[in-house]
Design goal:
The chain is of the alpha/beta class. α5 links the parallel β6 and β7. The radius of gyration is 20 Å and the shape is globular.
């Protein structure tokens, strides 16, 4: 605590009130600057240029672009170094794309704030103008590092081939222009935040591609006992987004999900307070897709947990064991997944 106070005092003496930790990708920086803008609008003392310092922290997930996330540790690769900086009091809070945040947070920290959610849907980007997975010719190569997307693509068109395709938005678009793949998918939220919506060939509704847990939601993580920081962050939180993401993350946690498991889920909160949730678990080859829809429930976390438990019982433990065994065997993503033998 003394070290944290010393660090904060040193920062304050230079005019810095808050130190914000972020990854260094263009999208992460866009989210960091959006956060800085919102803080400035809400608090006059944070309106001058140097009051919120943005500290860029490189993460393993940003550096290991040559291999699929599923084979190098999943979601935590984008947050571990940020966790360390937060615990070491090098930053006061971190800004995350919440879909990259593991369900089990570092002890003593919390996701204290969710900004109003962007459009959560995925988009197809196809130079040929193809708007449906069913319309891609057999043998077409679709670039995606996401097992969630891969499973849903194969369920609609088993004749295509999905290959590992990582990097920031600009890198993926360049690879697409260079002809490395015939099409790719991105989160619409990321394109919108960077003013690059024109690249989207087709925005995909939930029945075409159910989005990732917490997709489109920016969250803030800080230490739970840091009241000096929390007083600035909590007022910025958007409750309907917080409730929806809480439901989705509870669903994911009940399934022990990470980047090694093709799990999707989305919740929406209506103006009347109803929460609608849809969840999906699939085998990586798309051969099995299981959905669960739940209607009105008062507790967001409870509905997520219940949906996950229901889906897990429906699929059976053997399904999850088979899926995990399969993923562990996939060390090279540039191979067409085949359904694991039982």
């Amino acid at each position: 605590a003394a070290e944290g106070a010393a660090n904060r005092g040193s920062a304050a003496s230079s005019g810095v009130v808050l130190r914000l930790g972020t990854r260094g990708s263009p999208l992460a920086l866009a989210q960091a600057y959006e956060t800085k803008r919102r803080l400035a609008e809400a608090f006059p003392e944070l309106a001058h240029d140097g009051s919120v310092e943005i500290k860029v922290i490189s993460t393993t997930g940003d550096e290991r672009l040559d291999v699929p996330l599923a084979t190098v540790g999943g979601k935590g690769l984008f947050t571990r170094e940020l966790d360390v900086a937060l615990l070491n009091k090098e930053v006061d809070f971190c800004v995350h794309s919440t879909k990259d945040v593991p369900t089990a947070l570092v002890p003593g920290t919390e996701l204290c704030t969710m900004l109003p959610r962007e459009d959560t849907r995925d988009v197809i980007i196809s130079p040929q103008g193809i708007t449906r997975f069913e319309d891609f010719p057999a043998g077409s190569v679709i670039g995606t590092a996401s097992l969630r997307r891969q499973a849903q693509i194969y369920a609609k068109n088993p004749g295509v081939r999905c290959i590992n395709f990582r990097g920031n938005v600009q890198t993926r678009l360049r690879k697409l222009r260079d002809g490395e793949v015939d099409a790719t998918l991105l989160a619409y939220a990321g394109l919108r935040r960077m003013g690059m919506e024109e690249h989207a060939t087709q925005v995909l509704d939930w029945d075409q591609m159910l989005p990732a847990i917490a997709q489109g939601a920016i969250s803030f993580q800080c230490t739970s006992d840091d009241q000096a920081t929390l007083k600035y962050l909590r007022p910025l939180s958007h409750q309907p987004t917080f409730d929806a993401v809480t439901c989705e993350r509870a669903f994911l946690a009940s399934l022990d999900g990470n980047c090694k498991t093709p799990i999707a889920g989305q919740a929406e909160v209506s103006k009347s307070g109803e929460l609608r949730f849809q969840g999906l678990v699939a085998s990586p080859d798309g051969g099995r897709v299981l959905r669960s829809r739940v209607g009105r429930v008062e507790e967001a976390a409870e509905i997520g947990r219940d949906a996950g438990g229901e889906l897990r019982r429906e699929a059976g433990e053997a399904f999850f064991q088979e899926m995990q065994a399969y993923v562990q065997e996939v060390q090279a993503a540039n191979t067409r997944p085949a359904k694991p033998t039982k």
